[in-house]
User: Fold META domain-containing protein from Arcicella aquatica.
Amino acid sequence: MKKNLYHTLAVTLLTALVWACGITIDPTPLCGCSPVVTLPDILVGKWNFVGYIKEDSLNIDQEKLKASTPDFPADLELSFSKTSQNRKELTFTGSSSVNTYNGGITLGTGTTDSSWRAWTPITSGAIAQTKMAGSNEAMAFELKYLNGLSVGEKVKIEDGANILLRVKIPNDEMLFVRKR
Assistant:
């Protein structure tokens, strides 16, 4: 009888401790402490392409970026790979002025839970796309945009009024803003 009482008490206390510390399916802990947010968690979602930081002379002033739109709209959606248990492998899909595309990236080995505000190396895989034709200007934009995604070297998140995704490419950076 005493053994059952101690067992029930232990299970009750352990359940209360787990509940209070926020070890739940809900990402918001009940204890008021901050959940651990990793770079892959932040990257997953929908992003709008804003432009190239150097070429378009973009100032990373988040209030001004709300109204920025490139001549040719492009977007990007990142998600966890369905074929891998590795949370550093992400797939992407999107549209780039004329065609739709998809591919994958792998986050570098230097990625840690707290490094999402620092530059993180990436490796891109092949990018597949539809083959529709558009104006010369739209096709030139698309070629440059998809080439930028394929040669991306690093990613970085900046938070503020908007959540920004910066993709370091040779000689410039691609800038995306989180879709709301």
Summary: The first strand starts at residue 45 and ends at 52. DSSP finds four helices and nine strands in the chain. Residues 1-35 form one domain. Confidence is low (pLDDT under 50) at residues 17-28.
